Amino acid sequence: MSALDAALVPAPASEAERRRGLNGLLLYTFFMVTGFAMLMPLVAVHFVDRLGLAAAAVGGALALRQVAQQGLALLGGLLADRYGARRMICLGVLLRALGFASLAYATELRWLLLAMLLAALGGAMFEAPYQASIAALTDERSRPRYYALSNWIGGAATTLGPLLGVALLRYDFALVCLGAAACFAANFVIAVRWLPKVPPPARPPPLRDGLQRVRRNRPFLVLVGLLMLYWFVAVQINLSLPLLAQRLTGDTDSVGIMFALSAGLTLALQYALVRWLQRWLSSAQMLVLGTALMALAIGAFALVGSFAAFLACVAAFAIGAVLTRPSQQTLIADLADPRALGTFLGVSSLSLAVGGGLGSLAGGGLIDLAAALRLPWLPWATFCAVGLLGAFGLAWATRGAARAPATSP
To answer: Angle formed by the axes of helices 283-300 and 218-234, to 10°?
Structure first.
């Protein structure tokens, strides 16, 4: 860990401090995911079905947030390498809270875009420092287990978030926005109270040093590029799937049911299933398997004619996500250079920025196009093709890593 003293997160003074930091990050994860999950899935429902904006316009706003947040995450990582992780996390969660609170008063597209930009800037400031803090406080042996546990807690929060959001939506969308903002305000307190104090290094490394390390790491760059295809499919959970649920049932409660099922499966399977599969499969193999399952599941939505069939496809999609989340996090952290963790984790966010941004744009645009052309299968066939291409690409790129099972903690 000595190389980290001049990088993002210096080694804790004791095992107790390290555990305290990791426990604080788990609590932080719960509030971060709860706040996001209670609001973002309802943005499309509120602005499309209640305010009458075009699905493509709202998809564009969601894409703007995605691209701005993940695109600027590199800046957050660079600043964290130079000024310390906790400072950037504190700044980021306050900006995210302000952005979510401002959504409560957005009634036109321009105000929706402005609120999304503010929320994106906050996410850009805290995302890479948050991920790099986990990478710095764990090692190769403990990291897969911690990511599985963190994603299990994220699953619990994803179960709770939409249920809270739908319940508050019965009263007012503004309450949903303010409740989500409160979660990120709570994370400011958690960061100050539990995360390790990270003073700026005495001799900060040049900003271009980390970028040069990234440029020389070809396996890392290939993985980031291929994960763009994965995120193109994965982000449909926040746009295309809620809109389909709403159209199948005509009831916003169906969106909450969809997310409750997805998150419930994550909660039930994330930790135990990943730990069990690690006996036989490497992280790379689980990532390929999960991506292929998500692609096939989202393609099956083209055949859905009832809400029950819709939920069956959601379940398959969720199981695929259970396999991919900790696997991609572990692979990215293992390939990152510990001397520039913030920069590497910031660059890795470009996969979500580009892939997720294009996915949000395509999601809204393809749904509108499919309705105009009366081709309801068009969006789902497109998502399936992109996902399968990503799975084949990941299988090729990680074929060497796939020979050895993932390290069991």
So the answer is: 30
Residue spans per domain, the chain: 12-195+207-403
Q: What's the rounded Cα separation, in Å, for the pair 284 and 393?
A: 12
* Residue 166 near residue 114, CB atoms below 8 Å: no
Q: Cα–Cα distance between 194 and 142 in angstroms, integer? A: 20
Helix (H, G, I), strand (E, B) or coil at 281: coil
Closest CA to 245 of 258, 260, 264: 258
- Residue predicted with more confidence, 170 or 253: 170
Q: What is the Rg, in whole angstroms, of the alpha carbon atoms belonging to the chain?
A: 20
Gap between the Cα atoms of 148 and 269, Å rounded? 10
Task: Tell me which H or E stretch contains 167.
Answer: helix 143-169
Q: How far, in whole angstroms, is CA 86 from its chain's centroid?
A: 20
- What backbone phi and psi angles, to 5 degrees, belong to 239? -135, -70
Closest CA to 195 of 81, 84, 302: 84
Model confidence at 197, in pLDDT bands (50, 70, 90)?
Answer: low
Q: For residue 331, give the nearest of 233, 219, 408, 409 by alpha carbon.
A: 219
Dist. CA 170–CA 179, nearest whole Å: 14
Which residues have a Cβ under 8 Å from the Cβ of 372 and sit 6 or more positions away? none
In CATH, what number does 12-195+207-403 get?
1.20.1250.20
Predicted TM-score (pTM) of the model is: 0.71
* Number of Cβ atoms within 10 Å of the Cβ of 165: 29
pLDDT in tens, 214-258: 888 898 999 999 999 999 999 898 788 988 888 888 877 788 788
Closest among 246, 233, 255 to 39, alpha carbons compared: 255
Q: Hey, CA dihedral for 366, 371, 375, 380, is it positive or negative?
A: positive
The model's pLDDT over 364-404, given as tens digits with 9 standing for 90+, comes to: 788 888 888 888 889 999 999 999 999 999 999 887 654 44
Name residue, tokens 């809400």.
307
Q: Encoding tokens for residue 96?
A: 């995210």
